[in-house]
Amino acid sequence: MTAVQGALGLIVAVVLVIREMAGHHEAAISGYGTAAWFAAIGGGVFAGGLALTRGRRWGRGVSLMAQILLLPVAYTLITGSGLPLIGVPVAIVALAVLVLLFAPASLTWLNADDLPPDA
What does the buried/exposed string (b/e) look like for 104-117 if buried means 16 or more CB atoms within 10 Å of the residue's CB? Predict the structure, then answer.
């Protein structure tokens, strides 16, 4: 799920660049600057998700931070922006990933001594 979240961030970055190149300029934000932010954050989250799929422990920290940051975003989408159809699924996925990151099997894997040193 973390890799999917990162991939979605990268897709948003591409869409923002395409919109800016097509002449859709926002008065309040820079499409290119926002795209760069989404590319950096989305790329990091995507890398963390890939690390988790390859058994690397460092991906867990990236995933944990991404989910913690997504919860207030979901809350704002639900309450402040009037977009509960987007906010509720974001909240459900973030909470589900958090539960999975702290599941007993995940903690056992995290504390295992038989992983290679670069994990």
Answer: eeeeeeeeeeeeee
Counted domains in the chain = 1
In-domain check, residue 117: no
Q: What is the SS3 assignment for 82?
A: coil
Please tell me what DSSP assigns to residue 102. Answer: T
Q: What is the pLDDT of residues 61-92, one digit of tens each?
A: 999 999 999 999 999 999 988 899 999 999 99
Q: Is the pTM of this model over 0.90?
A: no
Answer whether residue 115 is part of any domain.
no
Helix 31-53 and helix 58-79, axial crossing angle in degrees, nearest 10: 130
pLDDT in tens, 6-56: 999 999 999 999 999 988 877 677 889 999 999 999 999 999 999 999 988
> Tokens 């799929």 identify what position?
53
Residue 88 is predicted with a pLDDT of: 96
Query: CA 20: distance to chain centroid?
Result: 23
